[in-house]
């Protein structure tokens, strides 16, 4: 009998910051653009974004993640707390913050700060209980060490025998636990993990290698390839228009998170792997078409003269190009 319970997301969390403005001149002491800051947007990243996207499906979501004791972690908890219940583990170090700078809709620079690792040891009772009550589990691995903790891995392996468990892997992360219901690497990750360039063969090889019930290799606008244990691999194409419009490449940040979150929600509702992957392909495409991670961002004051903070459905992108002058 299928267990009822929340959708539990497990994984590394970080804070994403987007800074945007105008760039009409070059710095006088180096040939680099000067960006006049106009907007600042913040959102949970990593497993935090996956949890937010899962919550949009209307199910109860609990996030098990390691949090530091610093202002960035407090901001993360604030952004998540409106939609997701957080079951915190201890992070030793500073919260990882990824700050992207852009102008006229063009990315220019990313600054990464923070670092550390999750505290090892016995899995806290709260996290143990949350996983035991889960109706489905999504492991959103971002390569920061959480999925390598022995106590957590033992618990996840036990849970995988009871409820659907989806694993979204990372090149720097631990291997999925055996018995996962569905593993969701993208094509580049599949090659990193040792699979070949042929997506159909790669999905089948990874399914056997990871001892998973199914593996879906995502392929962007081409949909995904699904392999199930003991069966051949099949293509799951995107039905409908492609996500790209015009000549500008669409923002796909978080598309893999949306795919994994949608698949997990479908499995929680009773779908099989094939139906879950087909739903996830369509919902990931719709997510990109709607603006991708910008739809999960919150606008905050970039300068004192700008308007006060307010939630937005998506980040405003400034069109056009810039013609630099030195000043």
Characterize the structure shown.
There is one protein chain. The protein is α/β, with parallel strands linked by helices and 327 residues long. The protein has a single domain, classed as Ribokinase (UDP-N-acetylmuramoyl-L-alanine:D-glutamate ligase, 3-Layer(aba) Sandwich). The chain is 27% helix and 32% strand. The chain is built from eight helices and 15 strands. The protein has helices spanning 47-55, 71-81, 125-132, 150-160, 187-192, 199-209, 255-268, 273-289, and strands spanning 7-11, 13-26, 33-46, 61-67, 85-103, 106-118, 136-140, 165-168, 182-183, 214-218, 224-228, 233-236, 298-300, 310-311, 325-326. Strands 1, 2, 3, 4, 5, 6, 7, 8, 9, 13, 14 and 15 form a twelve-stranded mixed sheet that branches. Strands 10-11-12 form a three-stranded antiparallel sheet. Strand 11 and strand 12 form a beta hairpin. Helix 1 (47-55) packs across helix 7. The longest helix has 17 residues, at 273-289. The protein is globular. It starts with 6 loop residues before the first strand and ends with a strand.
């Amino acid at each position: 009998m299928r267990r009822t319970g929340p959708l539990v997301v497990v994984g590394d969390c970080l804070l994403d910051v987007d800074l945007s403005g105008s760039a009409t001149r070059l710095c006088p002491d180096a040939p680099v653009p000067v960006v006049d800051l106009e907007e600042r947007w913040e959102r949970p990243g990593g497993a935090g974004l996956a949890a937010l996207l899962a919550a949009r499906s209307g199910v109860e979501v609990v996030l098990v993640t390691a949090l530091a004791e610093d202002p960035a972690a407090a901001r993360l908890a604030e952004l998540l707390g409106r939609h997701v219940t957080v079951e915190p583990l201890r992070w030793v170090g500073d919260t990882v913050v990824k700050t992207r700078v852009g102008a006229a809709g063009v990315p220019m620079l990313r600054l990464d700060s923070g670092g550390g690792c999750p505290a090892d040891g016995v899995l806290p009772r709260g996290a143990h209980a949350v996983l035991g009550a889960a109706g489905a589990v999504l492991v959103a691995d971002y390569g920061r060490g959480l999925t390598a903790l022995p106590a957590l891995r033992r618990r996840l392996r036990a849970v995988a025998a009871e409820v659907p468990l989806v694993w979204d892997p990372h090149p720097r992360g631990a291997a999925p636990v055996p018995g996962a219901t569905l593993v969701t690497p993208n094509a580049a990750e599949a090659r990193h993990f040792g699979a070949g360039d042929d997506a159909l063969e790669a999905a089948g090889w990874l399914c056997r290698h990871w001892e998973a019930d199914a593996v879906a290799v995502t392929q962007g606008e081409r949909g995904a390839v699904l392999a199930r244990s003991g069966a051949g691999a099949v293509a799951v194409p995107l039905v409908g228009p492609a996500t790209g419009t015009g000549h500008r490449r669409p923002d796909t940040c978080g598309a893999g998170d949306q795919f994994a979150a949608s698949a997990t929600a479908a499995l929680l509702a009773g779908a099989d792997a094939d139906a879950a992957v087909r739903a996830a392909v369509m919902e990931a495409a719709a997510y990109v078409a709607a603006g991708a991670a910008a739809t999960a961002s919150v606008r905050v004051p970039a300068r004192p003269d700008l308007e006060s903070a307010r939630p937005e459905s998506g980040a405003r992108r400034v069109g056009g190009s810039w013609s630099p002058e030195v000043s």
